[in-house]
Specification:
The chain is mainly α. It folds into 3 domains: about 120 residues, no CATH class; about 100 residues, Orthogonal Bundle (DNA polymerase, domain 1); about 180 residues, Intergrase catalytic core (hpI Integrase, Chain A, Orthogonal Bundle). Helices cover about 45% and strands about 5% of the residues. The chain contains 19 helices and 7 strands. It has a 4-stranded antiparallel β-sheet with strand order 1-2-3-4, sandwiched between helices. The longest helix has 23 residues. The radius of gyration is 26 Å and the shape is globular. It starts with 12 loop residues before the first strand and ends in a 10-residue tail after the last helix.
Amino acid sequence: MAGRSSKGGERLLNLRGNVWWFRQQVPEACRKVLGAGPRFLLVNLGTSDVVEAKKRRNELEALTRLQFGQIKEGRRTALQLPDWAAQSVQGGIASPAARGALARASIEAARDMQEPLADEEDDWGRDTPLDLALFSAEEEARRLRPADRRAFEDALIGRVDIDYHLGAYLSKADLAPKTLNERRGLIGRFASWCRAKDVKLDRVDRRTAGRYVSEVIDPMHAATQTKHLTALRSYWKFLAQRGLINLPPAESVRSGWPWNEQQLDKGGKRIERGAKVGAERPFTDEEVRKLLYSPFPLRPDWEALMRDVLRVSLLSGMRLAEVLTLWVEEVHDGVFDIQHGKTSAAARKVPIHPDLREIIERRTKGKAGKDWLFHEMQNERDPGDTFGKRFNRFREAVGVDDRRPGIRRSLVNFHSARRWFTTKARHAGHPKETIAEIVGHAPDKKDVTFGVYARGASEEQRRTCVAAVRLPENTFK
């Protein structure tokens, strides 16, 4: 039998006593932002099971690699770790809310692991069932533990948990942090359902997928169903591309089997008189008046931020994350020069509405290029989520809400400002192609003339379109 690899399946793992630790080197550029501390991020994984340790390692590495990149770009100032890891991090480089006190023994163990880290081959995500089989076989020969014997037998025939490859998938998925966490939760929910029914990855077929859809997904709102199935299809495409699952002969690697075509078409449902459609909608002009001009019901120091961000979105159609994370240097020459976003179409130049000039002048005064325009959110762990929750409290407090029976979410939210802008631009008679460019929607490739051949709206067309949108008058004076 081959000898145990010096790294291989135990990459970034360190066994101290009977507990596995995660250890990853912190880039020098990140240490300058995170403050003085050890050169390594050390997290007690809280398990002696190597299989569980690998799962937690994969999750932590995917998160830290993504966040280290954001820190280097100036878009993050602290690490955000999962709840299970936040209380056992060592080194003082996570956000204050994520740090917990360690026992003396854990601190001593962490101190022992501060030796320099040799350059390692980037074999992230390459652990296979064979790696696990070899390691488990060595452990079985050495200790003959029942847990290792079961792991060996499962790995030998490819029987692993649903989320065994989740860390590798998330590390390769080019997704925004919010979407990344959402995918982790949705796929993890299916993994938990399978564990409860003792279903392994190799046993998931069309029937199993159908049972899960019937029991869990069907009762959800149609939009949530789509989001859930999209996450599962994407994960299964990755598994198929890497040869980690076997597809039926008639299925393509790109099909998303067994999750493709699982959602029932509800488009033919009859609408009766008086029925209310449950689609999220734009704000009405009266709702905009309440949000902009009514007495502010929350903390006074939140008012300027809340209403400035809202005005920018109402008069530009920009998404919440795009507004909140604007750098001062990205506001120049009369445009918001957006360099990142939800899709490739999100990178664009949005003309600055004349009514926003006072906000821009006030918020850029005395700031450097990479300072945040909305500096109040710069040190928040998740600016979009934090602001979104505050905005919902504000919205409900001033009487802007739309709840319908059987629908979990209100039909109005911050995104309704973006919908309001789009609606007003359309009512002003501007072409849909020009509006789509301003709000960052990809062109319709089925429309050959505008989606393929046309080169886009002119700068003057975009400025005219933005300027045509006017806020309602203040009736609260």
